[in-house]
Amino acid sequence: MEQIEDKKQFAVLIDSDNISARYAASIFNEIENYGYASFRRIYGNWSGKSNGWKEQVLLENSITPVQQFAYTTGKNSTDMAMVIDAMDILYSGKVDGFCLVTSDSDFTRLAMRLREENMYVIGMGESKTPMALTKACNKFIHLNLINKQVGDAETMSVESGQKKSGKAAAEEEHGTAVTPLSQIEDAIISIINDNENKGKITYLGELGSRLNDRFTDFDVRNYGYTKLMVFLKDTCQRLFLYQLDSAWAVGLNDQLDREKLEQEIREFIRKSGGQVDNLSLIYEEIHKKHSTFDIKDYGYSRLSSFLKSIRSLSVNGNTVRIREKK
């Protein structure tokens, strides 16, 4: 059995003004994945509303309440008390990291300051948390998304009309609260291409690790999944998974042959009278036939650069025409 002293020690500091007691169990279940919560404190004015943080909840989770009166109307005294305690704990040298449980962006600077001292900072809050705070942490966990039993009751709207699946459903359900799936898919493709350029295979474990490093809030549970493999199969059509011995690897589906792509573009321009005055029309035409088309697969960041490389085409600004043969 792993000894407590061998595990990373964390100070869990909870802002009761912004976090509901319904997440109590989730908070400490999550922190167990990273280490031991040696400090468990919650800050608030217990003479007023406490967001459900009753005595029984505090006792069940061994949380020490810190009373902070609101000395002035409109000023958040809880924030200040939490910051002061965090710095005291930091300089005591007793912890390896902090878990800041709040959705308040006012704690962004605290998270940054703790990281400057080589502390591992985990943030926990709801999906309404501003991006500034989520990016300031080493890892950010959206409590209402990972705990679907709680999150469904609080964040899901009443279902109406047809149900969507995969990527469209995940993005529609969670909006911009978490990193968009399109960004994650771009990152996955970039990682696989980088490895291919180095002659390396991209294993599932490495891919998950690098996504966590790149996106502080990455967690497949944010999108309604429990396994990375199922998440990739459902949301990233351009990927295929295959098994090598006992490990799983990830690759890109064969891209459209460049020569065939050039032929299709030339044919579309001919049908348009030999000239197209809007590059987006060409992109839309390609995408109609090939839904997974991405110009980056051909080594270009812009469609215009790719078109300029085709000798039979002339590109001037947003206009593309077929060159006349001399």
Automatic annotation (TrEMBL):
Residues 156-176 are annotated as: Disordered. Transmembrane segments: none annotated. PROSITE patterns: HTH_OST. Residues 180-254, 257-326 form the HTH OST-type domain. Pfam families: NYN, OST-HTH. This is NYN domain-containing protein. It comes from Laedolimicola ammoniilytica.
